[in-house]
């Protein structure tokens, strides 16, 4: 009986063992099937994906940036070009590898021309830069030789040629063409249609800035296959970059040279433009600077000293300098009085050398002791009678004056194709109340009548306002770029001044002709020495007021002029030839004292040269 029980127990154990064995077999079979499926998927089903990812790891896109556009002067000669330099470039996406390589390379090449800053830049910068980073910019011959000897140590680092900007005549066109500088992070992230790489140079000043989108072109790219060390195996695809535009300027080199040499380092501004088109023929601000210091193509001078120079060589006085217009404003004041029928051309006064409001109080003195005697408007402009315009101003209100002068562009920017243009200051009642905290007084209007007091202008504004007189009511928007490639820039009317009596334009032109061609004119000296007859208006802008009535004008000014910085500015605005004006000139020499003997001869010389070249 016991035997049968034992057999029964053994049979149950065997059945249990068989059940467990079957379960284990099923589990093992399932595991085998799962692993088999995974192997099949990896080897066959997902093969395309892994091959694609592998291709992405060994195929990179390298941008191709076009050479920056060239800039030519009016004679068709290149004034800004690109020259080749050698850079040291890292290709890859590993910041750790870059820094390891760079630390070793610095021990050999030193830190001269080092561009990559490990403390400032990151792996994000590498991705922005399409997996390349410029470590050194503009390697010298010694650095190139040293790297070539040991380049096998750094397979991801290569010497690559690049282009640098060169302004051929250094300082001559500095305030026209401007300069380049390292692209900012804001430019990198805000530019949608142009992907700036790190360490790229973009326009920061002048035409280089204003025409950045045209001069830079559009990048292309190369898709290349690389090996594990980053070396190129072959090129797969290529898209050529879009060629940039070349700029052709209206600026004349000979006129630039004369203007620069005549100023001879003195602070001042010279602007000359064609009144019939608005094209600028000469633009010089002094002191100037060498743009190649910013472009990285010159080492003759310290950039830091340039930036801290108290003479402000980077400041473009032509479009940003604020000066009292002085007597150059008188023709416009006279025109306003004519238009309002306050005077006519026959109206005259007895200029005794001073003026008092309602015959009492402060004496506003004229520049000539004893005065000019009897003067009408024409003679008052020719001899620059302060007393005539003191009296005229009291018959006009600041409201009339500011509204009328604004029509000629005073207090407004012109929109010339340069950056940082100033609107200067055309005062109003509200302006004085807000800026000075005082009401407008009649004395303020008296000062404005001779272009002094609160009013300031830029040389550009004065040139355009004079163009209105030359063109009898029209000024064209100033521009420096005459054409881009073969496409001419547009001529555009900027101001249109409509007056009731058109003969007044002729009268103003006659008066300005008398300044330079009548024996009593303040710039009569030009008719004796110039090749061509020109018309114009002199100005002497006071920096320090003459208030000591116990002294004569000459005696008080002798004390003031002991300090050079307190001396008057010399101004002259003119145009020529008289019959068919081709050039309007404004010359301002800071602390030059005499508009007739210092500023006017410069304008005459430039006009004569221009007419000699372009009869």
Can you put this structure into words, describing what you see?
There is one protein chain. The chain is built from 24 helices and 23 strands. It has 615 residues and is α+β, with helices and mostly antiparallel strands. β8 (220-226) and β9 (232-239) form a beta hairpin. α16 packs across α19 (442-448).
Short description:
With 615 residues, this protein is of the alpha+beta class. Helices cover 39% and strands 20% of the residues.
What distinguishing features does this structure have?
615 residues; alpha+beta; 7-stranded mixed sheet; 5-stranded antiparallel sheet; 39% helix
Protein structure class: alpha+beta
Strand content: 15-25%
Question: For the residues shown, what is the average pLDDT?
Answer: 86
Helix content: 25-40%
Shape: elongated
- Distance from N terminus to C terminus (CA atoms, Å) equals 143 Å
Q: Kindly provide the radius of gyration, computed on alpha-carbon positions and rounded to a whole number of angstroms.
A: 38 Å
